[in-house]
Design goal:
The complex is a heterodimer of chains A (83) and B (259). Chain A has a single domain, classed as ACP-like (Non-ribosomal Peptide Synthetase Peptidyl Carrier Protein, Chain A, Orthogonal Bundle). Chain A is built from three helices and no strands. Chain A is 57% helix and 0% strand. With 83 residues, chain A is mainly alpha-helical. With 259 residues, chain B is of the alpha/beta class. Chain B has one domain: Glycerol-3-phosphate (1)-acyltransferase (3-Layer(aba) Sandwich), CATH 3.40.1130. Helices cover 51% and strands 15% of the residues of chain B. Chain B is globular. The chains are: A mainly alpha (83), B alpha/beta (259).
Chain lengths: 83, 259
C-alpha cells in the first residue's frame, strides 16, 4: 500500500513539472497547492482534466473540492482508483 | 483663512458625495430594477439597459464630484476604451471602477463576491448583471466567454484588490487566463490619482490637501496572439509575467512624471 502511494506521489510530481513547470524538489507531500506551489483554481481544473487522462478514471471536480495539499491529491487518486 | 474654508468645503463636498452614492446605491435600484423587469425585452436587453443606466449614473456622479470641487480628471483614449474587449487596469483607489464604468456604456465588471452583500453596491451589480467572482476563477472564465459573446466589455482589476501605495503590483493569473482562453486582446488602462487618496488604507474622511486629480489613460492594445505559442497553462503564466512587468513599469513612469 505504501508503495502505491509513493508511485502516485511520483506521478503527481511529474505531472506538476510537466503542467506547471514546477521544480520536483519544491513539491513535498505536505506542500499547500495554493500557498506553496502557486496553483490557482483554474490550474486545479486543468489538473483534474490531466489526472483523468493519467488514471483513466472519471474524476468529478467535486472529488477535489476539499483538496489542499499534494498529499490530498495522492490520497484522492488512490481512493478513486481503488474503487 | 481662505485655505481653511476651501478645505472645509471640500470635506463637506466629499461627505455629501459619499452620502449621495450611498443613498443612490440603495434607493435607485429599488426603483430601477423593477422598471427593468417590467419593460418588455429579453434578458440580454435587460442587462444592456441596466449597464447603460449604471454607466449614466456613474458618469453623472463623477461630474457631480468635479462640480463640487472634490476632484478633477483627464481621460486619454476614451474611444479606444469603448472599442475594447477586455479592459485591464491598475487599482489605486475606490473610484477606479466608477470612472471606468462612466466611460464604457456596455461594461461588465468582474466584482468580488463580498460586494454582493454590500447594500450600497448590490443593487447596481444585480441591475447590470456583472460577473461575480466568488473565489473560483474557473467559473469566471466560463462566464467571461459569454460576456464577450454578448458584445459586452469586460473590466478586470488583475490584482484582485486595490494596490497598497508604493508596493509593486502583484497580478493574479485570472485576467491573463481570460485573455488567453477567450482569445481576446487586452486594452490596458493606467489610473493615477494625485494626491493619492481613497486607497485601501485611507478613510474617506481623511481627505487630501488638494483636490484629487485623476488620470485615466487607455494604452495601445496588447495582442493576445503573441502569447498563444504553447498550451493555455504556460501561456497564461507567460502573459501574467508580461503584464506584471508592464503595469509596474507604466505606473512607475506615471509616478515619476507627476512627482
Amino acid at each position: 500500500m505504501m508503495n502505491k502511494q509513493e508511485d502516485t506521489f511520483q506521478q503527481v510530481v511529474a505531472l506538476f513539472e510537466e503542467l506547471f513547470e514546477l521544480d520536483p524538489a519544491r513539491v513535498k507531500p505536505d506542500s499547500n497547492l495554493y500557498n506553496d506551489l502557486d496553483i490557482d483554481s483554474i490550474d486545479a481544473v486543468d489538473l483534474v482534466v490531466e489526472l483523468r487522462k493519467m488514471t483513466g478514471i472519471k474524476i468529478k471536480p467535486e472529488d477535489f473540492k476539499s483538496v489542499r495539499t499534494v498529499n490530498d491529491i495522492v490520497e484522492q487518486v488512490d481512493k478513486l482508483t481503488a474503487e | 483663512m481662505l485655505a481653511k474654508i476651501t478645505f472645509a468645503w471640500r470635506w463637506f463636498a466629499t461627505a455629501f458625495s459619499f452620502f449621495i452614492f450611498g443613498v443612490g446605491g440603495i434607493i435607485v435600484p429599488l426603483i430601477v430594477v423593477p422598471i427593468l423587469y417590467i419593460l418588455p425585452g429579453s434578458q440580454l436587453q435587460r442587462e444592456a439597459r441596466g449597464q447603460k443606466f449604471i454607466h449614466l449614473a456613474f458618469a453623472t456622479f463623477i461630474k457631480l464630484m468635479r462640480f463640487l470641487g472634490v476632484l478633477t480628471y483627464e481621460i486619454h483614449g476614451a474611444k479606444e476604451l469603448r472599442n475594447a474587449k477586455l479592459v485591464l487596469a491598475n487599482h489605486p483607489t475606490l473610484l477606479d471602477v466608477v470612472f471606468l464604468i462612466a466611460l464604457i456604456p456596455n461594461a461588465n465588471c468582474v466584482v468580488k463576491g463580498a460586494l454582493t452583500r454590500n447594500p450600497f453596491m448590490r443593487g447596481a451589480i444585480k441591475a447590470a448583471g456583472y460577473t461575480i467572482n466568488s473565489g473560483a476563477a474557473s467559473d469566471v472564465l466560463i462566464e467571461a466567454k459569454e460576456v464577450f459573446d454578448k458584445g459586452q466589455i469586460m473590466i478586470v482589476f488583475p490584482e484582485g484588490t486595490r494596490t497598497v501605495p508604493g508596493q509593486s503590483h502583484l497580478l493574479k493569473r485570472g485576467a491573463a487566463n481570460i485573455a488567453i482562453r477567450a482569445g481576446v486582446d487586452i486594452t490596458p488602462v493606467i489610473i493615477t490619482c494625485v494626491p493619492i487618496s481613497l486607497t485601501k488604507q485611507d478613510k474617506w474622511y481623511n481627505i487630501p490637501s488638494s483636490p484629487m486629480h485623476f488620470n485615466i489613460s487607455a494604452l495601445p492594445v496588447i495582442k493576445v496572439h503573441d502569447f498563444q505559442s504553447s498550451n493555455d497553462i504556460k501561456n497564461a503564466r507567460l502573459l501574467t509575467d508580461y503584464l506584471t512587468k508592464y503595469f509596474n513599469a507604466e505606473v512607475a513612469v506615471n509616478d515619476s512624471v507627476t512627482k
